[in-house]
Amino acid sequence: MKLQKKAYLFAFAAIACWSTIGSAFKISLRWLSPVELLFYSSFTACLVLLSILLVQRKLSLMRNLTISQILHSALLGLLNPFLYYLVLLKGYDILPAQEAGTLNYIWPLILVLLSIPMLKQKISLMSILAILVSFAGILIIAGHPSVAPQPAGSTNPGALRHVEGVVLAVGSALFWALYWILNIKDKREAVTKLFLNFCFGFFYTLLAIVLTGTFRVPQWQGLAGAIYIGFFEMGITFVLWLNALKFSSTTAKVSNLIYLSPFISLILIHFTVGETIYLSTITGLVFLVTGIVWQQYLKR
Q1: pLDDT at 153 over 60
Q2: pTM of this prediction?
Q3: Cα(279)–Cα(115) distance, rounded to whole angstroms?
Q4: Alpha-carbon span 235 to 244, nearest angstrom
Q5: Which contacts of 246-249 are long-range, i.e. CB under 8 A and separated by 24 or more positions?
Q6: C-alpha closest to that of 106 among 270, 279, 266, 259
């Protein structure tokens, strides 16, 4: 099999997995709170990544870690999975899955903006226009007044609850962009550092559950959803995507394929979660992805 064909197979496998996650988040949150879902899914991810390290015979790399590398992983684990997923899942808990998942795709543009002060990168006028196109998509999606059903006894008006969900969904992208920038500077082997990051993230989540006294034995539906998310969102899919990049002749041949994911995700959300897909979501997503792809084209 040609290497490029192998790269496409790995890329499409990763995209297929990621496309199901919006539905998995929303369905699992019917049975678990955001912090509970993160607790069980991050634990699953730790087991999956540990298994990958054992199969690849890379676990011995953990012995060579320095104190500074461990502290760096402690910081990265705070950003992702802890803060990123906790904020994102809270956004999913409030908004329809189609809106929360789509708004989260703003992270590549936040990454560009953060790279200006943090990586000393310059930005052109065309890049600014591309960013504005994507932000127009965010406004279109956020302008839809719908919200997920409110909890019984909630005193938070629907409009305020919608704004809160939008802020959380977009805010989660900030944590991911920060994580991405700090991760770029970390030259350790990819799966090894991801495993350590998730170990710290799981510890922070465990600490949050203990301090808030929210631990409970989950129903099997919630636990099954958390295991699915831990395996396909946080664990194996990352390795699939790394292999896609590894075998591809150029990164560009597979990197833009990732933007198929939100469109496929909308179809799955409609049929699995039962949401009616709004025209504003589709229109906003087109603006959002157009701006991101334009920005990446300018970068190349």
Answers
A1: no
A2: 0.88
A3: 33
A4: 15
A5: 246/7, 247/3, 247/4, 247/6, 247/7, 247/10, 248/3, 248/4, 248/7, 248/8, 248/11, 249/3, 249/4, 249/7
A6: 259
